[in-house]
Design goal:
- With 108 residues, this protein is mainly α.
- The protein has one domain.
- Helices cover 60% and strands 0% of the residues.
- It contains four helices and no strands.
- It starts with 16 loop residues before the first helix and ends in a 7-residue tail after the last helix.
Length: 108
Amino acid sequence: MTEPAGIGGPSKHGPGGILGDLRNGRIQGEDARIRAASDALEGTFYQELFKAMRESVPESGLVDGGAGEDAFTALLDQHLADVQATRSQGGIGQALYRYFTGGKGEGS
């Protein structure tokens, strides 16, 4: 899976994203699994944030994309949330990672 141009190069996770890689055993080692789980939780936070932000914008009623637009928007938000979570420095994911590794992991 690759990211659109301008967002930042190819994604390091498979089609199922971070959680899919965790479930399928593609991420090996306790440290890497904790990092991936922390990034996944941060991605979920960003996804809910994007969803709430979109709901706060009133619809004009001029053009309605219907269910197709809703599905595309949800997928776009999920992708952007995953990208943001894996590139975030010092965010929620980093704090969780430090907590679960006792501050001894990489990037602490």
